[in-house]
């Protein structure tokens, strides 16, 4: 189990933390005060009050090497998919959203959340979700009146912001405590699948827009880029070379891979003449369209203003799940976090960025599912320890096994902030030109690696591998052996149906339905003991649950803190897993 | 250690085997009779006498499923590189050697060696060596008189045959017993490197001959083909699914991969229109050039006949090492072989095939280095056993580890024979047409997979990985720890210099020099104990050494049977390794 004993020192008084951790709860409150919807702003207030004392340490704690490595890694992991989604969105919204809008949105989100958020670990930016959302609305609006698209989107943002604020003030983020691995793994798997298919789409579009030479070359580069990053990250989890050097390779895998393959694509000869798609850029700091940064939202007809209302509600619903789950996974149980979370306040803040994004005509940012946990991972100090298992074969033949433990997380605001500065820097002319050198094949490669990182390391995959494993080689103390294979299969099937539903509806709505499904249906199909092996809370840290009104109560189940046998077993045997290229415990 | 207890029953009397195993030796013989060069035909006689009693069992033992799997695998592993080398040779010898010549040569070799050889496990066919040899001579001959190339090559074959017979009759194959892992690993590594670079060459030639679309598509297909076969073979060595099913996937990896990717290359659209190079074919059963199958060698001028003599000597020298080493590795120590070897007789036979190949104008076949051990591997019955290592952590937490042991080898002639029939079948019209559907990218993929199989599983790689391993995770009973790292590095350096020398001279000559280097120089640089850890005999089976006049005597070293600590350690811990896609023991 991750030990927090070696953690970086936290400068606020522990008593304060203890006290505030229990102050936000409805457990022993009776009468109308127990109805959380009526306790306007209670969650937001407690979130801020709980975290504020740590603000200084959030800056002071940042002065470590981890922060530098994190900034570099996150710059790539956050920006490359954002740009890739923008390429898509740009094509399909009549060039309204361009690269400058995306960078502005990412930078805005990074600035606001790194400075004002309770939980600055949650990376906020542009997702595929918002790309899809934007061009779907574009398709609808252009049926009636193409010219009003900017103003209409602006009102969607304004309504969305209002709904965000209502949800945050009415303490409705509390329901996120019912998110267990069942839902978060399913969602992660779904997003990973979407990322991979998005990578394939990027490659196909090379064939249609740039011809066969560019298409085949892009396929080749994307595959090799994937293999490069995957290998470098795999070396980081191995035991070759010194810990420092292999850590360096893994930390800068994206830098090394990207520089190499971008350079490769420019080698004169067949490679250069393949004329692949490169990132399209426009004048630095200006909107892609000839317009000012402020949308004239007051010029929109009233009927359209109200037509935007349901879309505003929809964006809130999508973000409710997307943002909160990414925040939750960024604070998942295997990270030894010590500073408190703040879901209500952060969701309120998300309303603010949605508002700003709306009136400036940029895509709405929100919490990023694979990126947010990758951020925490990049800030985690991992220690590869030697575990010697004495065997009965006598001296010298004990078994030496590397066990990775998460010693501490460098919890601070600087990495998110500087990454944001980096994105602003990218908006300047010279760096835009550098960006223009990047072939879209590299983006496809990033989608593959981030997507596979999410799919391959998922619990669904782990359980599936357990199922196909030849029985006699399974360790006898493996907790999954306590559950009949048919039940494990049923569990995976439920999750995969959830993934399929998400793909079919192409939106997060289906993912939201996973929470009630888990709370009410699953306990009818699985026994208490089975659930304790198969499921686990996504975040069980007290500092996290404090913001959600304490641990959840599942009807008819054991106390959730007692579940997660499978996880505890795995951690004890092999240490924690890293959020890297699909590193599965085997 | 591999146990031979479960081996297929061998039908000849064990007493006979014992007696004949010791009958060919010079150890206790004095006077002129101790000079092996003067004992004309002694080795050949004993080879035949030793093996003849097993002839019936060589046919009877074949009726197992292993033989079927072996035939299919070897058909691909033998034929695809042969065809690929032919494409090259065809271009560079003025289209004298075409696909029909290559198939004929492979089929001839398979027929002759499967029926008449003492060791039918040694796969004989077309190598890159002979392709290089043929077009080098073509380049030389065309300076003087291009038209005589067929007759000149014919005389090279005739002289080569004569030298083969002399070497075989003078018992000179005996020196092969001095081949240890030092030389055979170096040679294997060299050939693997050449295979991989040959694959790259194939891909580059797509760019120059067929244009960029075909080039990039071929790169993509070759990489994916490699990954497909590699993954399928890796599954075969894992513990997922039932042993039968995962064995099936590994056995038919080439079939599955080849059918899939050949089909893929024909999908209408960008893939089909990429117009990649496919295997060029001509009329079935006829020579590529308008000529008869018999070369009119008697029409060549006498001066040219004698000019061919040194080349004949050269081909003998090349084959001496190439053929005997492939035979040796096909009978390497980790295969539990029970039937006796026969190096002298087989080399005599190689003289005969060289003669026939010479007068019919087809490339000279010889023993194939990566393919011969793959053949034995494909015939080996592996058993994945469960080893339970009790730990001191108490009940249920013992460690379960799969240990692969080689139970038996299905030693017979049928697999080689039927594979030869398959090649003859391939020479018929309809199958030639099927062959014509294969893109050259698939051949590049085969080169990658066979080459990496040879490089990745090499002892050089294993020692290198040991060196970069972080010390504390190395098992304390690892024998390599007994040798200082500097010495291990020196050992690898010697081997890599050997590889570099082979590449530089582009021929096997350098490889031959490895044997005296190992015998006289290495003992001066390494202590007896170090050598016992670092080196090992390539084949230590009594049945093999019997044909070479008994075990070798290295000046100033321990008895070679006592060396190979590293190998014995590894086998004891993890069982034997398979000759598959670079499966390294870690």
UniProtKB/TrEMBL annotation, chains A, B:
Regions of biased composition (Basic and acidic residues) lie at 564-574
Q: Where is this region: Disordered?
A: 548-586
- Protein's membrane topology: Multi-pass membrane protein
| Record InterPro entries | HCO3_transpt-like_TM_dom, HCO3_transpt_euk
Q: Where is this protein primarily located?
A: membrane
Q: Which regions span the lipid bilayer?
A: 68-87, 107-136, 148-167, 213-232, 244-264, 304-321, 342-364, 442-461, 488-515
The GO annotation for biological process reads: borate transport; monoatomic anion transport; monoatomic ion homeostasis
Span of domain Bicarbonate transporter-like transmembrane = 42-209, 216-537
Query: Which keywords does this Swiss-Prot/TrEMBL entry list?
Result: Membrane, Transmembrane, Transmembrane helix, Vacuole
Where in or outside the cell it occurs: the entry states: Vacuole membrane
One GO MF term, please? solute:inorganic anion antiporter activity
Please give the GO cellular component terms listed in this UniProt entry: plasma membrane; vacuolar membrane
Similarity comment: family membership: Belongs to the anion exchanger (TC 2.A.31) family.
Q: What is this protein called?
A: Bicarbonate transporter-like transmembrane domain-containing protein
- Taxonomic source organism: Penicillium steckii
Taxonomic lineage? Eukaryota, Fungi, Dikarya, Ascomycota, Pezizomycotina
């Amino acid at each position: 189990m991750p030990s927090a004993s070696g953690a970086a020192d936290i400068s606020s008084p522990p008593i304060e933390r203890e006290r505030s951790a229990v102050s936000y709860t409805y457990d022993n409150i009776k009468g109308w005060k127990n109805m959380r919807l009526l306790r306007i702003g209670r969650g937001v207030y407690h979130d801020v009050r709980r975290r504020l004392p740590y603000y200084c340490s959030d800056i002071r704690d940042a002065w470590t090497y981890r922060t530098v490595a994190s900034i570099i890694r996150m710059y790539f992991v956050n920006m490359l998919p954002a740009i890739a989604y923008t390429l898509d969105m740009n094509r399909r919204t009549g060039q309204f959203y361009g690269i400058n809008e995306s960078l502005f949105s990412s930078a805005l989100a990074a600035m606001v959340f790194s400075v004002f958020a309770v939980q600055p670990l949650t990376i906020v930016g542009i997702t595929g979700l918002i790309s899809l959302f934007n061009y779907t609305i574009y398709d609808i609006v252009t049926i009636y009146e193409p010219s009003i698209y900017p103003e209409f989107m602006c009102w969607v943002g304004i309504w969305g912001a209002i709904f965000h604020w209502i949800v945050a003030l009415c303490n409705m983020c509390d329901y996120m405590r019912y998110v267990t691995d069942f839902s978060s793994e399913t969602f992660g798997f779904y997003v990973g699948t979407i990322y991979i298919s998005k990578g394939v789409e990027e490659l196909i579009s090379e064939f249609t827009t740039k011809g066969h030479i560019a298409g085949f070359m892009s396929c080749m580069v994307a595959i090799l880029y994937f293999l490069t990053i995957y290998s470098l990250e795999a070396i980081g989890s191995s035991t070759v070379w010194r810990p420092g050097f292999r850590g360096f390779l893994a930390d800068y895998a994206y830098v090394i891979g990207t520089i190499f393959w971008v350079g490769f694509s420019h080698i004169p000869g067949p490679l250069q003449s393949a004329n692949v798609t490169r990132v399209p850029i426009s004048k630095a700091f200006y909107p892609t369209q000839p317009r000012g940064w402020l949308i004239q939202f007051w010029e929109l007809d009233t009927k359209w203003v109200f037509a935007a209302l349901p879309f505003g509600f929809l964006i809130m619903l999508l973000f409710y799940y997307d943002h909160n789950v990414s925040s939750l996974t960024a604070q998942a149980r295997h990270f030894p976090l010590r500073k408190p979370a703040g879901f209500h306040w952060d969701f309120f803040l998300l309303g603010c960025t949605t508002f700003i994004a709306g009136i400036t005509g940029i895509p709405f940012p929100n919490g990023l599912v694979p990126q947010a946990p990758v951020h925490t991972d990049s800030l985690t100090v991992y220690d590869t320890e030697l575990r010697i298992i004495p065997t009965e074969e006598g001296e010298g033949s004990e078994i030496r096994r590397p066990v990775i433990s998460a010693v501490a997380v460098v919890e601070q605001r600087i990495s998110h902030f500087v990454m944001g500065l980096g994105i602003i820097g990218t908006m300047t002319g010279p760096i835009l030109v550098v960006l223009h050198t990047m072939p879209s094949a590299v983006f496809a490669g990033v989608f593959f690696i981030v997507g596979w990182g999410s799919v391959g390391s998922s619990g669904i995959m782990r359980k599936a591998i357990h199922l196909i494993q030849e029985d006699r080689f399974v360790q006898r103390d493996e907790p999954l052996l306590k559950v009949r294979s048919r039940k494990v299969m049923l569990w995976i099937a439920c999750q995969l149906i959830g993934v399929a539903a998400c793909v079919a509806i192409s939106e997060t709505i289906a993912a939201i339905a996973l929470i009630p499904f888990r709370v009410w249906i699953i306990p009818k199909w699985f026994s208490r003991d089975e659930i304790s092996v198969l499921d686990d809370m996504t975040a069980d840290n007290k500092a996290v649950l404090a913001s959600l009104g304490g641990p959840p109560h599942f009807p008819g189940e054991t106390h959730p803190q007692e579940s997660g046998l499978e996880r505890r077993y795995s951690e004890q045997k092999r240490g924690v897993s890293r959020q890297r290229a699909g590193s599965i415990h085997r």
